[in-house]
UniProtKB/TrEMBL annotation:
HAMAP family: Lumazine_synth (MF_00178). GO terms for molecular function: 6,7-dimethyl-8-ribityllumazine synthase activity. It comes from Croceicoccus ponticola. 5-amino-6-(D-ribitylamino)uracil binds at residues 11, 42-44, 66-68, 98. Catalyzes the formation of 6,7-dimethyl-8-ribityllumazine by condensation of 5-amino-6-(D-ribitylamino)uracil with 3,4-dihydroxy-2-butanone 4-phosphate. This is the penultimate step in the biosynthesis of riboflavin. The gene is ribH. Belongs to the DMRL synthase family. Keywords: Riboflavin biosynthesis, Transferase. One of its GO terms (biological process) is riboflavin biosynthetic process. Its EC number is 2.5.1.78. (2S)-2-hydroxy-3-oxobutyl phosphate binds at residues 71-72, 112. This is 6,7-dimethyl-8-ribityllumazine synthase. It catalyses: (2S)-2-hydroxy-3-oxobutyl phosphate + 5-amino-6-(D-ribitylamino)uracil = 6,7-dimethyl-8-(1-D-ribityl)lumazine + phosphate + 2 H2O + H(+). It is an enzyme of class 2 (transferase).
Length: 140
């Protein structure tokens, strides 16, 4: 049993609730403990995970967020930089599943967030579990 931290960027409440529920179910079904931390937006996710990783309390992380394209270049910044930051932490050996949706509209997000449909929160949690297994396999 390990302790996981779900870090959610709470930008769209109803979509977040579904993504977090899917992630929680996947982790708890696998027998792990879960805590949830909330940050304002997807750009805060990598920094928050980096800070939490420092304390050594968590075996792995799931980043949850929703970025919906607007009218400006902001979408590219938020979508690209949040993914880049999480990938950098992953390359440092931290077990993180990326559950940040980057979509054109709310309908696309709903289908992907819903645990009964694409369940991207659960998918991200399962990715974190795989990375945690790999950490153990390659530890010496
Ligand atoms: N537009 C979206 C954002 N933008 C906010 C940023 O993530 C950040 O919180 C702000 O720039 C302050 O640093 N965040 C999302 O999660 N989703 C969006 O669609
Ligand atoms: C992430 C986005 O594109 C969006 O939330 C911001 O919208 P806008 O580009 O219309 O300011």
């Amino acid at each position: 049993m390990a302790r996981f931290l779900i870090v959610e960027a709470r930008f769209y409440d109803h979509l977040n609730d579904m993504l977090v529920a899917g992630a929680k179910t996947a982790l708890e079904t696998a027998g792990h403990d879960v805590e949830v931390l909330t940050v304002p937006g997807a750009l805060e996710l990598p920094g928050a995970i980096a800070m939490a990783a420092e304390c050594g309390r968590y075996a792995g992380f799931v980043a949850i967020g929703v970025v919906i394209r607007g009218e400006t270049y902001h979408f590219e910044i938020v979508a690209g930089e949040s993914a880049r930051g999480i990938m950098a932490l992953t390359m440092d050996g931290i077990a993180i599943g990326n559950g940040i949706l980057t979509v054109e509209n709310e309908q696309q997000a709903l289908v992907r967030a819903d645990p009964a449909q694409k369940d991207k929160g659960g998918e991200a949690a399962k990715a974190a579990l795989v990375l945690l297994d790999l950490q153990a396999r390659f530890a010496n």
